[in-house]
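Pilot study result, target chain (264 residues):
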Amino acid sequence: MTTPKTPVADADAGAANPVSENPAAGNHAAVDSAAVDSAAADFAAAYPVRPVPAPGPVDTAPIATTPAALEELDSLWQAVVHETRTRGNDVHLPISLAFAERLCRAYPEADAELVRVATLLHDTGWAHVDESRIISEGFTGDWRKATIRYEHEKQGCDVARRVLPGLGYPAEFIERVCAIIDGHDTRPVAQSLEDALMRDADRLWRFDQAGIALASSWFKMDPATYTDRLATEIIPELITQAAHDMATADLNRSTALLKTAVIR
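Predicted structure:
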């Protein structure tokens, strides 16, 4: 399976990571913690400045102006239609993919195909967990350590291993995709530039008006409270400078549009 290293859509159109002790981690606990730590250390050494400066162009226009590359991944989308019907993934995943492609243009040294496929699939596991627990457990309290978060990561890897071989993706590539999906919510540090870009894309969608409307309801927050949280908690989590710039521009647009300074 070959696609361009950078998306074809026109631009105009840390710390060591110990394996979690959460018993629900399942296969996560079987991951070689030394290898995980080594990968994270290598990434930190290769990109010591945080947020990571962008060598390529940074597009801070509304994400609707640069949708994901048309048709290139249609066969993959069609293979996971069922998984897009849970937890608003039919909104979250396409917007996240558009941000991922934009980030890949800002960081052309990244393997864009890996970032794109991992982003498209990263939350498909939500379709294979107890849906009644998604909001009650996955979006309350210390939600990053919630059992259901580990479950959806494992299930997302299962989806990748099920659908990608039939689309011509080689086994080595599929395991690289799974290495990103596995821990994208629960592992505190990125292990590669591609991992970092997927993580940032997963967060950036929240700053768009559609993301605010959907995600604020998951956390049972009004838009003003939620956008406050985006500014104080989520922007500092972003790994790349390009993501910081995009998030800040989107947040300024969204708060102005939603009148959060007065509707609170």
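One observation from the pilot: Residues 96 and 201 are 5 Å apart (CA to CA). A full batch analysis is planned for the follow-on phase.
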